[in-house]
């Protein structure tokens, strides 16, 4: 029986969705009737608690797959298990990401390899695996979490900026290859979002400068984000739902920025 929810009957895989932006995106989809496969790192008991709570709250089916985003075979399995569990796969959100900051000449090569693998290559492997399911369903939405750093650069973030610029290119190619099909591919490009990853950067700055966390948070925003406000995970979830809606049918291959004016400068 129809519920009036906009994504009834759809199924999604959201990578990196056990906390932060990914969890907010998964929640936004589930609240619109979409079955969701969570994925990410964390304590098994906490992940199960999160999964069960989201399923209860939304009334949608919510499952978890622990695929390691550095391993293509596990990524392919996550896609296959999502389609098997929910009878199809319609929405893929490539959100998993890690960060490390250092000047290029001091940048650990292992960190470079890991960031490129998780932030960029994983999206290629999941997209390749998901497209046949979307074609079978006759409908698909691929949304890649990029960043303001997919459009501009900052010092000490060589791997992250390279990966996010790469995601922009992968998105455009995917959009062109599916342009005549009912499948779209776009990026959401947040500015500063107060996730645990960003909180750690703020705390490190406060410790280094001998200032308060809130003072450093405002300084961080003032350097890049003209609004001087953090983008929220919930706002990004709303953008995702819009990109999965009928209204966004002709939006493909583009960045949707939510950066408080960062890249307008």
From TrEMBL:
User: Keyword set for this entry?
Assistant: Oxidoreductase
Listed GO MF terms: 3-hydroxybutyrate dehydrogenase activity
Keyword set includes Oxidoreductase? yes
Q: Which EC class does it fall in?
A: oxidoreductase
Biological process (GO), any one: monocarboxylic acid metabolic process
Which Gene3D superfamilies does the entry mention?
NAD(P)-binding Rossmann-like Domain
Under PROSITE patterns, the record lists: ADH_SHORT
Pfam annotation, one family:
adh_short_C2
By sequence similarity, the record places it as follows:
Belongs to the short-chain dehydrogenases/reductases (SDR) family.
Which PANTHER family does the UniProt entry name for this protein?
3-OXOACYL-(ACYL-CARRIER-PROTEIN) REDUCTASE (PTHR42879), 3-OXOACYL-[ACYL-CARRIER-PROTEIN] REDUCTASE FABG (PTHR42879:SF2)
Task: Identify this protein by name.
Answer: 3-hydroxybutyrate dehydrogenase
Q: What is the lineage of its organism?
A: Bacteria, Pseudomonadati, Pseudomonadota, Alphaproteobacteria, Rhodospirillales
């Amino acid at each position: 029986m129809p519920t009036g929810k906009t994504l009834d009957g759809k199924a999604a895989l959201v990578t990196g969705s056990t906390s932060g932006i990914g969890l907010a995106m998964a929640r936004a989809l589930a609240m619109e009737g979409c079955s969701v496969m969570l994925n990410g790192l964390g304590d098994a008991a906490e992940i199960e608690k999160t999964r069960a709570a989201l399923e209860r709250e939304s009334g949608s089916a919510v499952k978890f797959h622990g695929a390691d985003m550095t391993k293509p075979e596990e990524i392919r399995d996550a896609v296959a298990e999502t389609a098997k569990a929910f009878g199809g796969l319609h929405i893929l959100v490539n959100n998993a990401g890690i960060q490390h900051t250092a000047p290029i000449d001091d940048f650990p090569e292992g960190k470079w390899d890991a960031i490129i693998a998780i932030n960029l290559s994983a999206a290629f492997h999941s997209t390749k695996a998901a497209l046949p399911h979307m074609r079978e369903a006759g409908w698909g939405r691929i949304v890649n979490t990029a960043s303001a750093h997919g459009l501009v650069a900052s010092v000490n973030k060589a791997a992250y900026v390279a990966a996010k610029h790469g995601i922009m290119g992968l998105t455009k190619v995917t959009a062109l290859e599916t342009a005549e099909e009912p499948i779209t591919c776009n990026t959401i490009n947040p500015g500063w979002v107060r996730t645990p990853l960003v909180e750690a950067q703020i705390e490190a700055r406060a410790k280094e400068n001998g200032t308060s966390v809130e003072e450093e948070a405002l300084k961080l925003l003032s350097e890049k984000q003209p609004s001087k406000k953090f983008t929220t995970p919930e706002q990004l979830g709303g953008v995702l739902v819009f990109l999965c809606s009928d209204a966004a049918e002709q939006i493909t291959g583009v960045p949707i920025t939510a950066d408080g004016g960062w890249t307008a400068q």
